[in-house]
Amino acid sequence: MVQWFPQAQFAGYIMAMEKGFYEDENMHVTIKFSDGADSPLQEVLDKRVDFCTGWLSQAIMLRSENKPIINISQILQQSSLILVAKKSSGIATPQDMKDKRISNWGGDFSIQPTAFFRKADIDVNIIPQSFRIDGFLMGAIDVTSAMYYNEYHKILQAGIDEDELVTFFFSDYDLNFPEDGIYCLEETCNANPILCRNFVHASLKGWEYAFQHKEETLDVVMKYCRQYHMQTNRSHQEWMLNAIESALKYRVGDTITNWGTLSKKDYETVADELLKQDLIQSIPSYNDFYKDVLHEK
Amino acid sequence: MKNDNIHVKRPLGRKLLFWIGAPLLLVYVIVILFTYYWSGKNALYQMKEYLFELTEHHACMLDGTFSRVSQASVGIADAMGILPTPENDQLIALMEKKLKDNKNIFGMAIAFEPYYYRKNVKLFSPYVSRSGDKIQSSNLADSYNYLYQDWYLIPQLLGTSYWGEPYFDEGGGNILMATYSQPIYRNDMFIGISTADISLEYLETEMSNIRIMAGYTFIITRTGTFIYHPEEEYMMNESIFSLAEQYDQLELRTIGKKMIAGERGMATIDDFFTGEKKWLVYSPIKECDWSFAAVIPEKEIMKTVNSMVIKQIAIMIIGLLIILLVIIWAAVGITNPIRKLVISADRIAKGDLNEKIVGIKGHDEIHQLVKAFNKMTYDLKHYIQDLTKATKAREAVESELRIARSIQESLLPRIFPPFPDKEEFDLYARNIPAKEVAGDFFDFFMLDEEHIAVIIADVSGKGVSAGLFMAVTRTLIKTVCDLKIGPAASLERANYVLCQDNDACMFTTLFLAFYNIKTGHMTWANAGHDEPIVAAPNGSIRKLVTFKDIALGIDDSHTYHEGVTTLDKGEIIVLYTDGVIEATSPEKELYGEKRFIEKIGEIADKPIITIINEITKDLDGFQLDNQFDDITILILKREK
């Protein structure tokens, strides 16, 4: 199960399924798309699905509550969550956001902004953010949260040029929270590590295929989008695929050699911040939380 | 026989057509090109204005529809801001009334700030909406927390009314909807939001009915998102900017920015797939900051523009054709009589003088020419009639002259050799008359067994009178010749007779010789005639020198002298008239005695018939058809 409706964010899994990479590993995989209301991690805990994707921050929080969830692969290495403001609003630095109207999604999405504003030592007027960008476009909101691969491009597709915008990547402020990772129950991994490894392997193969065959991938993604009545378009999905590729292959300032692995440093960055925000009481052990199924013998 | 087909290499009509038609055509072509250029420009300008007006018209119609929906909401907001807050059923009734009044309103809601409506009720939002033909009502607070909905939050934050981005209303049968939100203020305090929903379903039907030439129309919202486009897939999925990105058309993004900025304008774009040039004309729907646009293939526009231009040019071409027809008509009017004249002249040339040209009307030069022509034909006919009469008369005379000539010819000896049994001599003569009746004559006859008289004469004048005088003289000479008295006395006798009653004063030169065929001895007398020539076979020549005796018929008492000569065997004596030596070439040169004598010298040893043939041939070659005097030659030869 993935966290949202079909889009290029999940192209790797979709292509792995479409191209039969899971079948190659003797697995039968169907992808369940979230409608935004159900949490995939909760679905795994409730054993309604075997594997899911989820944000590292949320998974750490669950783990700290002794929920038997483990990360078997960290897919997206670089945080795509950003803050966007219009240049015309006069915002150029984090300090400029003081007393401005800033819209935020709740939950996981608010952890980095909270840390960000704390670091900048400013009070801001936080306003709950819908899934649309109208408030920002209309000027009702000064600064909006956005996923670089999604909302940011939607703003561009609403006729605002990149040079009219100011962006703040959290990863540039020591707040690189790796996002989508693959999770399953600890017991699943213990009972059948090969299955887990094969699943991750096939998923990464799907990603590799998706980046090497972008047009075909976009065809497939668009097919799913239409099937799920997503209001989206091909060029948007293309942007998303490229942005995801970059978030998957690169970490802030460097490239990564082993895709799909969770760096201990990133893990600690996220866990430390969660602790700071009292979202967790203690940091779960990295080794308990993460099983490098691909490389373990 | 009639042959009316005349072939003219360069007919006048064609010339007229060329010299008038060609410059006219040139002028017309220039005018047409200018017209094409200017009226093309003008038509294009008009077309632009037309398209502008048309899009503006449609945008205004939409604007009106949206305005009426928003006004309903504004009305309620105004009332809420002033009046004491009504009970729930009153609010419902108020909104139901608005829905009944305006079929475009799908639903309406009033949403209050927390605890505003009742101190103990946090969220309260009465909502009425259509469900089929009915209107139903509910409280939105039962379904969700509306406070963070765009339709509530954005106008609250902005402090102004707001047309939300369209969305598919999942509760109301997945209808494409747009919501107008109007903040409600009471005493400058924000107390809630009044909304009105418009179903955009009607847009699809309405828009698909709009026909702007062979183009299509679309509507984008303020984010550039298509909410109407004939390509159904685009609706709510694509924005003008996403298409610009996908098909890599930077200009389209620029156009899109202008459109969402509420500008009106016109631009050309390339079709994403065919690359065909298209016009995009857009106009804002001001009420909701949307933009209405029409896309028309340039070729359609140019077709219309061209058809306008073509109509103008067609009229000009028709005008040109009419002028050309008039020229042809005029040309035919001129050439037809001329053709008739040509045909008539042809017939006249073939002798048909009864030809008369009729049916040429008017009083112009052509008509005068026809009149003159007819007069000429008439005159010619009469002239020819007169001429025919005269010719007939002349022919009668000529026929008489011919008779006279034949009589005269019969007078001259015609059989050569005349005395085939006489081996001592040979004789041959030829007379070539210049006119029908000649004045020259020759004669010869035996005086006895041994003597022959030889005569050559030239009567003064020519024609009939000369012929008659010649006949008289010939007969007379024959009568008076007497061997005993000799040729000179014989001539005296003849002279005497001729001088009597010679009222016409005719005279004749004459040479008379008595020749002894045995001895070659010859006695002769010469009455003013050219001196005969004696030629030996070796070509030596001598002349019989005369005594300057005058011609016969002048002086009846003249005494003629007698000369004597002897022809050696083989010698010839050539008698001739002055027509020989006075023969004239076309260059007016005289044949001359010298040439004559030389010619005889060259051929003196030839048979005498050959000599005469050669001389006449030489004369013919010299004077060609120029003979104007009788020519007579007689040759006597003493055989060996």
Short description:
By secondary structure, chain A is an alpha+beta fold. Helix content of chain A is 41%, strand content 15%.
Strand element count of chain B: 22
Main sheet overview of chain B: 7 strands, antiparallel
CATH architecture of the largest domain in chain B: 2-Layer Sandwich
Structural class of chain B comes to: alpha+beta
Distance from first to last alpha carbon of chain B: 70 Å
- Give the low-pLDDT segments of chain A: none
What name does CATH use for the topology of the largest domain in chain A?
A: D-Maltodextrin-Binding Protein, domain 2
Helix content of chain B: 40-55%
Helix content of chain A: 40-55%
Q: What does the model show?
A:
The complex is a heterodimer of chains A (297) and B (640). Chain A has 13 helices and ten strands. By secondary structure, chain A is α+β, with helices and mostly antiparallel strands. Chain A has two domains: 8-78 and 177-289, 3-Layer(aba) Sandwich (D-Maltodextrin-Binding Protein, domain 2); 81-173, D-Maltodextrin-Binding Protein, domain 2 (3-Layer(aba) Sandwich). In chain A, the strands form three sheets. Chain A has a five-stranded mixed sheet with strand order 5-4-6-3-7, with no helix packed on it. Chain A has a three-stranded antiparallel sheet with strand order 1-8-2, sandwiched between helices. In chain A, strand 4, helix 5 (111-120) and strand 5 form a beta-alpha-beta unit. The two termini of chain A are 27 Å apart. Chain B contains 13 helices and 22 strands. Chain B is rod-shaped, with a radius of gyration of 67 Å. With 640 residues, chain B is an alpha+beta fold. Chains A and B meet through helix 6 and helix 11 of A and helix 3, helix 5 and helix 6 of B.
